[in-house]
Automatic annotation (TrEMBL):
<dbReference type="InterPro" id="IPR036388">
    <property type="entry name" value="WH-like_DNA-bd_sf"/>
</dbReference>
<protein>
    <recommendedName>
        <fullName>OmpR/PhoB-type domain-containing protein</fullName>
    </recommendedName>
</protein>
<dbReference type="InterPro" id="IPR001867">
    <property type="entry name" value="OmpR/PhoB-type_DNA-bd"/>
</dbReference>
<keyword id="KW-0805">Transcription regulation</keyword>
<dbReference type="InterPro" id="IPR029016">
    <property type="entry name" value="GAF-like_dom_sf"/>
</dbReference>
<dbReference type="Pfam" id="PF01590">
    <property type="entry name" value="GAF"/>
</dbReference>
<feature type="domain" description="OmpR/PhoB-type">
    <location>
        <begin position="244"/>
        <end position="310"/>
    </location>
</feature>
<keyword id="KW-0238">DNA-binding</keyword>
<dbReference type="InterPro" id="IPR003018">
    <property type="entry name" value="GAF"/>
</dbReference>
<keyword id="KW-0804">Transcription</keyword>
Length: 422
């Protein structure tokens, strides 16, 4: 074969090659020996797949759905070149009864488009958006192997490690960030034996290069001046990044900025007093002095008065969690949540914000029932005594250790607080 990356040499019989590969695959999976007809790139991939614990009868798992998938796709760099992919490959995929697929750098499928009947058929093996097709998860396949090797690759029929994928043929090429060279993901064409041709591999490689050229021409998405960014989750003292400065704020200044970031329209002095102080004897003079000190920390022009407000929009990690939760992106929201906002704060409005945020996350977690997300919450400091979450975790993953922890927690929370009198 002249090109080891192409699945079939000119003149080869696809049906006969597929039969040979099936026998070779059976030999490898049963005896661990590698027959000679298997291409080196495929043989190496089969060995990596076996070392990763992939079974030949396995299937891909769907990791992202609904809001999580939508949020992740919209934020991914390859979203900017999806119109180009559709323009260059969409008609080819639809007319040839193929699929256009795009994955991220971890082999997770972001888009799967093309011929409707082919898409339904591929869905039976979880070749769908949100599914993880990394080589380490499902073995040899074009998109997963392309990102693993960082080079274009074609996979034909029984060269796929998982048996249920062996009726398919695919070709994929990695797409890189033109500025950093980092692999962003891969573009793939998937279909029948007709794709086992050098042209399909050259085609996806050309499309990947066109995407990289397009990304290089696009203007940066970020504004010329980054807006202030406020980090308060899991921190007693907020961190503010603004104007090239990284500022660690005092606890009271942190509370004030949390409230002003949530109220871009501004707050009056009386509103801030009620929001910040449990003690009603605190005077407006005390608050004005605190705001004057904060203005000096922030620098000129950022904090205005009458009403008190920030003169530019301020992005906070609290707002990120709330947006993802509102969009139904539960995984994204839980990932962004690193603890309550200003956990030691006694400011009434900050405490209410923390309770609302935690309650919203808990409700979403219990409703979705994802055992991994529930476990992350239950084993975090803020969730280790959360009885409702532990009960939901037992329902989703009833292992002995989890059931024992729930029983212990229920016993602790229902035990009498004092000793009985003798």
């Amino acid at each position: 074969m002249t090109d080891p990356w192409v699945a079939l040499e000119p003149g080869a019989d696809p049906a006969e090659r597929a039969r040979i590969l099936r026998r070779a695959h059976e030999t490898f999976t049963e005896a661990g020996t590698m027959p000679r007809p298997v291409r080196a790139v495929v043989a190496d991939s089969w060995r990596r797949s076996a070392r990763a614990g992939v079974g030949p009868d396995g299937t891909a798992s769907v990791e992202l759905t609904d809001g999580d998938l939508g949020t992740y796709r919209s934020e991914h760099p390859l979203a900017r070149v999806m119109p180009l992919f559709r323009e260059l490959m969409g008609t080819f995929a639809a007319d040839g009864e193929h699929l256009l697929a795009v994955c991220d750098a971890h082999g997770r499928l972001l888009w799967v488009e093309g011929h409707a009947a082919t898409r339904r058929q591929a869905g039976r093996m979880n070749f769908v958006p949100g599914a993880r097709w990394a080589e380490s998860a499902v073995g040899t396949n074009a998109p997963g192997t392309a990102v693993a090797l960082d080079r274009p690759v074609q996979v034909f029929a029984a060269e796929h490690f998982i048996r249920r994928v062996q009726p398919w043929t695919c070709a994929a090429a990695p797409v890189h960030d033109p500025r950093t060279g980092r692999v962003l993901g891969a573009v793939d064409i998937t279909g029948g034996d007709g794709l086992a041709h050098p042209h399909s591999l050259g085609f996806v490689q050309a499309v990947a290069r066109a995407a990289e050229a397009h990304l290089a021409l696009l203007a940066p998405e970020r504004p010329a001046v980054d807006p202030p960014r406020l980090t308060v989750l899991g921190r007693d003292e907020a961190r503010l990044v603004t104007g090239g400065r990284d500022i660690r704020l005092s606890r009271r200044h942190s509370e004030i900025l949390v409230l002003l970031a949530r109220h871009p329209e501004g707050l009056t002095g009386d509103e801030l007093l009620c929001a910040l102080y449990e003690d009603e004897s605190v005077t407006p003079v005390t608050l004005r002095a605190e705001l004057a000190r904060l203005r000096g920390v922030l620098g000129p022009g950022l904090l205005a008065s009458r009403p008190y407000r920030l003169t530019v929009g301020c992005e906070s990690d609290v707002a990120v969690v709330e947006r993802r939760l509102a969009a139904g992106a539960v995984m994204g929201a839980v990932t962004a949540y690193t603890g309550p906002p200003l956990p030691s704060s006694r400011a009434p409005a900050v405490a209410r914000l923390g309770r609302r945020l935690a309650e919203g996350l808990r409700a979403a977690l219990i409703a979705c029932g994802d055992p991994d997300l529930l476990a992350d919450w239950a084993h975090a400091p803020w969730g280790e005594d959360d009885l409702d979450v532990w009960r939901a975790l037992v329902a989703a993953r009833p292992t002995a250790a989890i059931r024992a922890r729930l029983a212990s927690l229920e016993s602790e929370l229902t035990a009498p607080t004092g000793r009985p009198h003798s």
